Amino acid sequence: MSQDVPARASHVGLARATLGGLRTARGAAGRTLLATGAIALGVALGFAVALINHTAVAEFAAGLATLSGDADLTVQGGRTGFAEALYPTLSRDPAIAVASPVLQLDATLPGRDRTLPLVGLDVLRAAAVTPALVGVGEDRFDTLRPDAVFLSAAASAWLGVSRGGTIDVQSGLGLVTLRVAGSVPADPGAVVGVMDIAGLQDAFDRVGRLTRIDLRLRPGFDVAATSARLAGTLPPGIAAVAPAASLESTARLTRAYRVNLDVLALVALFTGALLVYSTQSLAVQRRQAPFALMRSLGLTRGSLVRMIVGEGAVLGIVGSGAGLLAGYAIAAVATRWFGVDLGAGFFRGRVPGVVMDAPAALLFGTAGIVAAMAGSYGPARAAAAMAPAAALKSGVPALSPGTHPALGIAAFALGVALIPLPPVRGLPLFGYASIALLLIGTLQGLPALATLLLGWVPAPRSPPAALALAQLRHTPAQVRLCLAAIVAAVSLMSAMTVMVASFRGSLDTWLGQVLPADLYVRAGGGGDTAFLAPDTRRAIAALEGVERAEFVRATALALEPDAPRVALLARDIDPGAPERRLPLVGAQVAARTGGAPPAWISESVADRRGWRTGQAIILPIEERMIPFTVAGIWRDYARQQGAIVIERTVYAAMTGDARVTDAALWLRAGASRDHVRRAVEALAGADRVELATPGELRELSLRIFDRTFAVTYALEAVAVLIGLSGLSSAFGAQVLARRREFGVLRHLGATKRQIGAMLAVEGLALAALGVLVGMLLGFVIALILVHVVNRQSFHWSMDLIVPFGPLAALAAALVGLATLTAWLAGRRAMTDDAVRAVKDDW
């Protein structure tokens, strides 16, 4: 034991003596900083996504705990709710101790860009189930008065009103003024208002309707068993579920977004590991002679590997630490400015505040360190494999990373085989694995691929070019060392470019198909209390300048008790020509006279439910199971949870609900759009409706798209920088190892200009080869992203759009920059004295 201590101390001393290699070599500080930054970027992105999601779930759980209180089960249905006649039936059930009826509406507030959740309660029942929602004021009877509302602290702060003030809520196109009678002791972050249930029903035309019933069971009754028993007695489309099911279903809805962002973080970590690999290769190359000396003095190969990998661990620790801090800052900014719903509208009505997630910090911090250590392992193994005598003799021998072409072929083949496999629990895990295997297989096969491609190049007449080509043909392993980072960066960059261009182009085309009218009108800004009554609808259609008007009633159905609701769009549509209003994909069937009415389902509904064109389906509408026939499947980029379109006249006949929420207006030839806009505002009230032209909606949608994908554009730029830096580091390592070669060439009469030209040709050839292979691999990855990952994640299809112009410009710029980078990396070798360069052979 005592003998091991001096040995370990000596190893630590040797490590300290050589650790400065990353800092003292010229240009190494910048490369080290960039490699550390790449690790930090991956950690920051992954940790920020984890924090935002953790905060969202925590906030939603807190709000759910407030809204559900001590309820064991919640009876709920579609967005329009159900008849309150179900309430007394449940109250008499022997398993139920307390049943609390609830009417919850998203109230539209004129002049506000978001809705206020209004909860109507029977205060006597709610006190036993959801006491945190019982209003607190000066007059206890205000809880029973129809014009009184109690606001949470967050709602009061948002609206800027306190006890004694008033708020105006839109009902149809009219206003209902509510008096703020006090507060509710709800979760501090919850934005909610509470009223007497009868007052809420009367004020917003919901008499006889409930949206849920909170149940507290008697002791001894099992929650799951009671839920299963009630399922057989409840009307269609209504289910009794545990409150936690709402949290789980909402979390599942955001999972695809989170996983895709996490994959971007892993991509950043992977490219960071490649940059560490290149940086460490150059650093190790510069220190081969000292390493050889230490090996001669007794340092074992294992100790040398551990020492170099330890240097990588230092990079990883610094990068991970910076990444965790940056990730927290990104999450704080994102939740403050964009909310905790990742921009998707899943967690509305919450005041964001970042909630720390220690397991996520440990996970992503460890991932950053492991990535840096993995990037250092290859150079460490290559350095340890070098014979000390040869290294001492030649000074700076070339590293020879191992090549495994068979492994590369196997990885590529397995990646191809995984492409058609189905998703796992709704996630394209095999698609991600396929991309990773294709990338790994290509990197492993680079030497053989480079030999093949360079063999097709005719021998140039210029001596420098001929020497450059011969050098590349006879050192395929060194070619892989130089190309690994740039191939990975270019492939991922080009794949993301094609995917984003395909998505944006498909979205643009889709907007043109779904926005054919001249002017669009929406009651309020959405919500449950704003609508266009039948008389208003007729008045809008009769306005001067309006040739034709079509209307939509937007609501939602609960197709499964533990899944998010599916949008139901009852709209004016010609069953004989639905393609005029819907972007249909695939075949369609004509509705049969006297048969079930047609329904057109979105791709998301088709994928999730397994429904196909021509199939007979049953939809739960107004507590009845109504048969429909799937007349077609359409593309919908607006609703990830899915949407179903039926004829508005059919919906009105089934439900008796003739109200609409949206209108599309076609104008007569020569009619002024501004004149019609002003006429609609005069009729409905300028602050009671939202009006927009197709161009305005298209511009807004594309602006939101570009903002959403801003992180992708940034990562593409970082990928290019990483690829160029990796080429610079690897090429610099090769040039350093070839100083004797340059010295011999100088003795034989070659000029510095000729050596520079040779290096420039090598850089050009490497860059062109890397960009070519990267672009080809990127196209394959793009196909997987567009047709597999995107479809399995979000359940919508896209048209493949390849932006040849931008890709060609990027390729040309990359080749030029990489050539310049390679020449600059080798410039130092051209300044070495020829005699000193070959003195090791004397």
Question: Mind explaining what this structure looks like?
Answer:
It contains 28 helices and 22 strands. Residues 18-27 and 342-351 have low confidence and may be disordered. It is 56% helix and 15% strand. The longest helix is centred in the first third of the chain and has 44 residues, at 243-286. Helix 3 (28-68) crosses helix 11, helix 18 (476-514) runs antiparallel to helix 23 (694-708) and helix 18 runs antiparallel to helix 24. The strands form 3 sheets. Strands 1, 3, 4, 5, 6, 7, 8, 9, 11 and 12 form a 10-stranded mixed sheet that branches. Strands 13, 14, 15, 16, 17, 18, 19, 20, 21 and 22 form a 10-stranded mixed sheet that branches. With 842 residues, it is of the alpha+beta class. The radius of gyration is 33 Å and the shape is elongated.
Mean pLDDT: 81
Helix percent reads 55-70%
Distance between the termini: 46 Å
Structural class, judged by helices and strands? alpha+beta
Biggest sheet character = 10 strands, mixed
The number of distinct β-strands equals 22
List keywords for this structure.
single chain; 842 residues; ten-stranded mixed sheet; 28 helices; alpha+beta; 56% helix
Quick rundown:
The protein is α+β, with helices and mostly antiparallel strands.
Tell me the layout of helices and strands.
Layout (H helix, E strand, L loop, with lengths): L3 H16 L1 H4 L3 H41 L4 E4 L5 E2 L2 H6 L4 E12 L8 E6 L1 H7 L6 E2 L10 E4 L1 H7 L6 E6 L2 E10 L9 E4 H7 L5 E2 L1 E6 L5 H9 L7 E3 L1 H44 L1 H9 L4 H38 L19 H28 L2 H7 L10 H14 L10 H16 L1 H10 L7 H12 L1 H39 L4 E5 L10 H8 L4 E12 L8 E6 L12 E2 L12 E5 H7 L6 E6 L2 E11 L8 E5 H8 L6 E6 L5 H12 L4 E4 L1 H15 L1 H28 L1 H9 L4 H43 L9 H23 L7 H4 L5
Parallel strand pairs: 4-9, 6-8, 15-20, 17-19
Antiparallel strand pairs: 1-11, 1-12, 2-10, 3-4, 3-11, 5-8, 6-9, 7-8, 13-21, 13-22, 14-15, 14-21, 16-19, 17-20, 18-19
